[in-house]
Specification:
13 strands, five-stranded antiparallel β-sheet, single chain, mainly beta
């Protein structure tokens, strides 16, 4: 699954081959996401932004897709969030990295179930990258 934008920087509809419960399916879920407006500052605890976007100070801005458990994180892109979780401790499924766990006290560190290692999410670079602690190497997303 690839992140795509049009010439204006708007996210194109993204086909996700999973249903709202995260199970593989032949049907396709397509969601159109609009970019965050420029110039927003996030100073409060979690709150709603424009056009359905949400924000948590520790996790950043994300768009919860309507009627599903999918969310679009402004840096990590598409993530599946199983139901019945609290916002301060999350299991998330990432299309390239599989199951990841993070919390309000560990982010930008994420624990990778697949790699059995901590990953450091470096959002400061132009190319988003993850540092795999156990292997001492960087993965470019």
């Amino acid at each position: 699954m690839k992140h795509r934008t049009d010439s204006n920087g708007t996210d194109c509809p993204l086909s996700i081959p999973f249903n709202q419960d995260g199970e593989s399916t032949d049907s396709i879920l397509q969601i159109q996401v609009t970019n965050l407006p420029d110039g927003l500052e996030f100073k409060e605890t979690g709150h709603s932004l424009t056009q359905g976007w949400e924000h948590q100070p520790w996790f950043g801005a994300y768009y919860p897709a309507p009627d599903s458990h999918w969310l679009y994180h402004w840096q990590l892109h598409w993530l599946y969030q199983p139901p019945n979780q609290t916002i301060d401790s999350l299991w998330l499924w990432h299309p390239n990295q599989g199951w990841l766990w993070t919390s309000d006290t560990s982010y930008p560190w994420l624990y990778s179930h697949n790699l059995e290692s901590w990953l450091y999410f470096d959002a400061q670079q132009q190319e988003k990258r993850l540092y795999v602690y156990n292997a001492a190497l960087w993965i470019v997303e």
